[in-house]
Amino acid sequence: MSLADAFAPYEAKQRESVMEATWGHLAPKKRKTYRGYIVFTHSIYGDILNIANDFGELPDSPWFFQAMMDFICSQDTEQGCVYRFDGTFRNYQFTGTARKVSV
């Protein structure tokens, strides 16, 4: 165990506190459903990229971004293809369908 490991839990707690103080007003509201879409791609180089998204009154925030990237990365996709997800975001969970689109 290193000295850095000893302080890691305290640093994580402080980082979360600062993020909440800075961006907390943008966090998605619990038990509220946001309807929208995400357009994303799995590039030929293996990157998974968010091209566009719109969930109405849901503002961008670190929490939404992380939930969206986790969701996109969990999808079964082919390299070099573009996909569109249509559905809802509620309590940090996406519900809906993602389909391959022609470009």
Your description of this structure?
This protein is of the alpha+beta class and about 100 residues long. The protein has one domain (about 30-100). Helices cover about 35% and strands about 35% of the residues. It is built from two helices and four strands, in the order αββαββ. It has a four-stranded antiparallel β-sheet, with helices on one face. A hairpin with a 2-residue loop joins strand 3 and strand 4 (about 95-100). The protein is flat and about 50 Å long. The N and C termini lie far apart (about 50 Å). The model has no long low-confidence stretch (mean pLDDT about 90).
Topology:
Elements: H1 3-23, E1 34-42, E2 48-54, H2 62-74, E3 81-90, E4 93-101
Quick structural summary:
The chain is of the alpha+beta class. The protein has helices spanning 3-23, 62-74, and strands spanning 34-42, 48-54, 81-90, 93-101. A four-stranded antiparallel sheet has the order 2-1-3-4, covered by helices on one side.
Report on the biggest sheet: 4 strands, antiparallel
Find the structural class using helix and strand composition.
Answer: alpha+beta
Distance between the termini: 51 Å
Order of helices and strands: HEEHEE
Overall geometry comes to flat
Low-confidence stretches: none
